[in-house]
Amino acid sequence: MVYAVRVVYRYVRRYFKFLLVGVMNAAVDLGVLNALLLAFPTRSPLVLMAYNTIGVMAAICNSYLWNRFWTFGDIATGSRREKMKFALQSLINLVLNDAILVGANDYLVTHRGLPYMLGSNLAKGGAMFVSSSVSYVFMRMFVFKRRNVLHLETHRR
């Protein structure tokens, strides 16, 4: 019973660390996106997607550092394979984020008549929620996956 409680505690603690890193990533992502929208206003979906891509990439760099060394620090290896998996996860995150942002922004601004900055930020919030949820699953189950100790012992012999 005590072991089960420790395991649950470890997963809950890791998830809350991930959420805190997510808040930092959101600040970076939204900060970059809004700075670009304020400095270089646009209504072009392609330019909006480019601004979003820059913001997401900045957040991805922040995410890798914090998740690699803090959230998943006990199981992350920093290996080339792990970095490649993180890059693949990041690409999926970026494509999903861009697609949701552009689609939701079009709907909110064109069909609902919201002001562009408000629609863009609401769409971005939805994009961040969906892509970060998918990202957690990918990072926990695919990127920073604890290797089977028994398998490692067998493989070393």
From TrEMBL:
Belongs to the GtrA family. PANTHER family: PROPHAGE BACTOPRENOL-LINKED GLUCOSE TRANSLOCASE HOMOLOG. This is GtrA family protein. Its main location: membrane. It comes from the Bacteria. Keywords: Membrane, Transmembrane, Transmembrane helix. Residues 17-144 form the GtrA/DPMS transmembrane domain. It holds the Pfam family GtrA_DPMS_TM. The chain crosses the membrane at residues 18-40, 46-65, 86-105, 125-143. It is a multi-pass membrane protein.
